[in-house]
């Protein structure tokens, strides 16, 4: 069975997000001061061949831990469809 894993990787809240700060500054310059915070991450989609949804989740989480996310600076969430 083929599953789709949607993975969101974001910088840890405790760390500075320079891209987010730059976008925040740009938004304020455009007159959009109502925006209170910006965090920029990445969205990754994987097509996974697995016997079950749980197996697909384990494969996706393994990929995140080994390659897709730097766990010192980033957190990740996996959603399987």
Describe the structure using short key phrases.
81 residues; alpha+beta; Mth169, Chain: A; three-stranded antiparallel beta sheet; 2 helices; 3 strands; 35% helix
Question: Would you spell out the secondary-structure blueprint of this structure?
Answer:
Blueprint: E1 2-11, H1 18-29, E2 42-49, H2 53-68, E3 74-80
Antiparallel strand pairs: 1-2, 1-3
Provide a concise account of the structure shown:
By secondary structure, the protein is α+β, with helices and mostly antiparallel strands. The protein has helices spanning 18-29, 53-68, and strands at residues 2-11, 42-49, 74-80.
Could you explain how this protein is built, in words?
The structure is a single chain. By secondary structure, the protein is of the alpha+beta class. It has a single domain, classed as 2-Layer Sandwich (Mth169, Chain: A), CATH 3.30.1280. The chain is built from 2 helices and 3 strands, in the order βαβαβ. Strands 2-1-3 form a 3-stranded antiparallel sheet, covered by helices on one side. The longest helix is centred in the C-terminal third of the chain and has 16 residues. The mean pLDDT is 96. Belongs to the PurS family. Part of the FGAM synthase complex composed of 1 PurL, 1 PurQ and 2 PurS subunits. Keywords: ATP-binding, Cytoplasm, Ligase, Nucleotide-binding, Purine biosynthesis.
